[in-house]
Design brief:
The protein is mainly α. Helices cover 47% and strands 10% of the residues. It has three helices and two strands; from the N terminus they run ββααα. It starts with 15 loop residues before the first strand and ends with a helix.
Length: 68
């Protein structure tokens, strides 16, 4: 992707989240998943099991609301 371009490259799997807001990137199974480098894995390592549970619960609520 060119610098300053507003287009999104679907092959780019990096994301940037600051203060709970997704600034850049696309959330995919790979970026959210529990594999090494995924959001769940990083939250577990940096915040612990309680915050990981909260993230997963709130993510499930968001998905349920979207489906309805």
């Amino acid at each position: 992707m060119e610098k300053g371009s507003n287009s999104i490259d679907v092959k780019d799997d990096s994301i940037l989240i600051k203060n709970g807001e997704l600034l850049t990137g696309i959330l995919t199974k790979g970026t959210i998943g529990s594999s090494s480098g995924g959001m769940i894995h990083i939250i577990w390592k940096e915040k612990g099991p309680f915050e990981t549970k909260e993230f997963m619960s709130k993510t499930q609520l968001l998905i349920n609301n979207w489906l309805h």
